[in-house]
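Q: Given only this backbone (118 positions), what sequence would you predict?
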């Protein structure tokens, strides 16, 4: 069974907005909050988060976001994510982020905050 973390980050490679929205709805509560260094503040709810994630796939076609490590303690999660694909020069590149989350009793993420680097 995939974690909400894995399902959420799989959506970053999805170019179809309906498919991406379904993955986000499956992994996040309706009023989930998301933030990272590029989000320019907190994003709340499926639509805002899906639009933001959609910008990633539009601006970095073919890139993926892969959870490379994950652990959980008392309903809090930590995951390291590798964002990778072809750079402007055509060579493969990888950027890493560390994310911290909190799930509700159903296992969906209520809060997810990311930081650049490992």
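A: Predicted residues:
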């Amino acid at each position: 069974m995939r974690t909400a973390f894995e399902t959420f980050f799989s959506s970053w490679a999805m170019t179809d907005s309906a498919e991406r929205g379904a993955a986000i709805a499956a992994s996040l509560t309706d009023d989930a909050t998301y933030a990272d260094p590029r989000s320019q503040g907190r994003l709340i709810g499926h639509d805002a988060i899906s639009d933001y994630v959609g910008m990633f796939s539009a601006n970095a076609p073919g890139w993926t976001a892969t959870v490379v490590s994950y652990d959980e303690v008392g309903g809090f999660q930590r995951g390291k994510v590798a964002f990778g694909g072809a750079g402007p020069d055509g060579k493969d590149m990888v950027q890493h982020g560390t994310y911290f989350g909190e799930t509700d009793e159903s296992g969906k993420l209520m809060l997810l905050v990311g930081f650049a680097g490992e």
